[in-house]
Write a structure and sequence with these properties.
This protein is an alpha/beta fold and 168 residues long. It is built from 5 helices and 6 strands; from the N terminus they run βαβαβαββαβα. The chain has one domain: SPOUT methyltransferase, trefoil knot domain (Alpha/beta knot). It is globular and about 40 Å long. Helix 1 runs parallel beside helix 2 and helix 1 packs parallel to helix 5. A 6-stranded parallel β-sheet has the order 3-2-1-5-4-6.
Length: 168
């Protein structure tokens, strides 16, 4: 069974992390948080953004990027950046355990990390004259693309309409 992991390297905005935690909860993705953060985990805004989802999450925390990388040396990691030529939707994501790493809202991922992994550095297309998408939006776009490719494993339509009737 494939497994998605979302990795946030040094997140700075609590509302983004809260929204991302909610995305992870509803998609079954594991959340990895790499310090230093621009907020406290107990921050009221962070909890408000994902409060009713915290108990439904699998969350891991790391003291630094190096600690995460050492613990996941063999992991398949896709590095999301505005600096790649590879479009995220052009990648065929293998049905196995994969990691999507996102950098700080104000700085992205370290350049040396991207240089070391050009084959798995990917971007979400956007107008070149603007900085970038909101981090929580980027995570949602990326997560749902891989889940679409995997045919939405363990995600059912329970509670939704099962029969559609169209009228003129």
């Amino acid at each position: 069974m494939p497994k998605l992991h979302i990795v946030l390297a040094e997140p700075q905005i609590p509302q983004n992390t809260g929204n991302i935690s909610r995305t992870c909860a509803v998609t079954g993705a594991t959340l990895h948080l790499i310090q230093p953060y621009g907020f406290e985990i107990s921050d009221k805004q962070l909890k408000r953004a994902g409060l009713d989802y915290w108990d439904k999450l699998e969350i891991f925390q790391y003291s630094c990027l190096q600690e995460f990388l050492l613990q996941h040396e063999q992991a398949l990691i896709y590095y999301f950046t505005t600096k790649s030529r590879i479009c995220y939707s052009d990648v065929h994501y293998p049905e196995k355990e994969i990691y999507f790493m996102f950098g700080r809202e104000d700085a992205g991922l370290p350049e040396e990390l991207l240089v070391q992994h050009p084959e798995t550095a990917v971007r979400i297309p956007m107008k070149p004259t603007l900085r970038s998408l909101n981090l929580s939006n980027s995570v949602a776009i990326a997560a749902y693309e891989v889940l679409r490719q995997w045919h939405f494993p363990e995600m059912t339509a329970e509670g939704s309409l099962t029969k559609f009737e169209w009228s003129n």
